[in-house]
Amino acid sequence: MDDRLATQDRSGQMRRISTRFALMMAAAAVVPLLAYGAVSIISVGEGAEQAVIQGNQNVATRAGGQIERYVLDSIRILNAVAQDLRRTDLKPWQQERILLNFASQFGEYKKLILLDENGKTIASSGAEASDIQLPGADSVTLENALISRFTIDDDLLPAAVVAIQLPQGSKGGWLVGQLRLEELWRTVNSIHVGETGYALVITDEGYPLAHGNAQLRPMIARRDKQDNHPVFAALHAAGRDSKKPVSAQYASGGKDLLGVGVKLASLNWVLIIEQPTNEAFAISTRLRQQLIVSITVALFAMLLVGSLWGRRFIEPILRLTRGTRALAAGQLDTRVAIASSDELGQLGTAFNTMADRLVELQEDVRKKERHAMFGRIAIGLVHDLSHPIQNMGNSCKLILKMWDDEEYRESFRRTIERELAQIKRVLDDLRNVARPTPVERFPIDVNKTVADLVDSMMTTAANAGITMAIELAPEEIFIEGDLFALNRIYRNLITNAVQATPPRGRILVRTLKQPDDVVIEVADTGCGIPADRLDSIFDDFVTTKRRGLGLGLAISKKVVEQMGGTIAVTSQVGVGSTFSVRFPLTAARPSQIAAM
């Protein structure tokens, strides 16, 4: 049963690894393929769209030039008639004959009239021409002719009044004709882009003159302004002298359209060609779809090949995986056997070499750690015990000579007790590192315990030339803990602050009540702790002082955590350090605070 489970586990591992390996091998080929495909799809699509836009712009440019030539040629023809009328020997009936002949030959001018300098009619192409008026103040000059703004006549044809001034002495002041651009409609209707693309012409005021879409032609009769048309607005914003075509994509009439436009500079008109985007970009869409299908097929083919090919490499990888896990579990005698001369075989050999080397390095590290630890302990013991032992030895030598001196015997007793207490503290620290002393929990008045300890250490701070102040929370605050352990923590923090603070420095001890916690802070104006040592300041045998085992803060941290609290430090070199001890508040109260 166990063998079957182990076999199933290995089979499951093989399937998972083979899948990941296949995906890895496929990704090595797929990522470049996908990147290339994405770039190709974007580039081909954008290139095809730009080609369509450029093609439509070329059509618009050519058609715009054709329309401009048509209008300008019509004006030039009227100029030619004016040249004939400048002859002074022509009689009025001859002038009228010229006008009639011209009107019959050129359908653009059905109404012509010749006026003298005073505006009196000299000759006309017919009675219907008598209602023609000279262009007003809003007219423009083009090809030496004054042209009124184009409007739509009763036949829905673009029309304008063209006036050419004759020189003085030619029996006429103005040749005036009504220009009707019937050919403009045929030109606009002949412009086709794709199957449904069409053209329209808009004046500089935004009024449409001709439209290639029969369904939208009523807007011409209604005089619907098109000044908000995206292409018209873009050309208008580009300025009168701009000759560069513009393009835009927008929605109109429930369709997404591609619009391109050019400005007819001499007429200040705009020619716009519109085409549904689904038709304009049909080739681009098909190219994108073909590329996506091709890339998808290639992707699945690579995944299949990678999955089949990757299974050949799975067993050596599984052996290396099991060997690595065994090494990580501490089984340094684990070795792998891979009968292969390729890179996997070389990797197996390197693994075995690494395992042999790890055994050697581990033993070497153990030796060095033991030597380093014994050295640090020895140096710390020498530092912490040499001074008390030296004081005791000196006192013993003197007591032999001054035994009869009662005052010196009392001083000898105090010296021995003090130094023995110092030695006991060092030994207690060593014992607490190896086996922490259990703490008892009972309600403790934090303000009272802190105040009592600070008061007992005021003399120590004063002897070092340091001012020590205390700030207590205004209300009573209680925690559950061990009074002896708490006093040891406070004493360690204050002693460290005294040793780190130079004369004329200041130490502040304060208590703070927060919603759920009590914070005891010991802040000094000492030398500070370097930033790179803050993370290890609470580790065993780590100290920033010249002497000592470096166990005070480590033991304090362990005791604080035993009582369910935390301890932290913030420090800045040259400014000082602040140690913060945090304990949870308790609602319990001791039966006799004074007895504690």
Alpha plus pi helix count: 13
Total DSSP E strands: 19
Structural class: alpha+beta
Q: What percent of the residues sit in helical stretches (DSSP H or I)?
A: 40-55%
Broad shape: elongated
The end-to-end distance, rounded to whole angstroms, is: 65 Å
Tell me about the biggest sheet? 7 strands, antiparallel
Strand content: 15-25%
Q: Which radius of gyration do the C-alpha atoms yield? A: 52 Å
Mean of the pLDDT scores? 78
Low-pLDDT sequence parts = 1-8, 592-596
Strands, helices and their partners?
Elements (H helix, E strand, L loop, with lengths): L1 H84 L6 H14 L3 E7 L5 E4 L15 E3 L2 E3 L3 E2 L5 E8 L8 E7 L1 H9 L7 E5 L5 E4 L6 H5 L7 H9 L7 E7 L2 E10 L4 E8 H4 L1 H29 L3 H15 L14 H59 L4 H29 L7 E4 H18 L3 E5 L6 E4 L1 H18 L5 E8 L3 E8 L27 H11 L3 E7 L3 E9 L12
Parallel strand pairs: 14-16
Antiparallel strand pairs: 1-2, 1-7, 3-4, 4-6, 5-6, 6-7, 8-9, 8-12, 10-11, 11-12, 13-15, 16-17, 17-19, 18-19
Helix pairs in contact: 1-3, 1-7, 8-9, 9-10, 11-12, 12-13
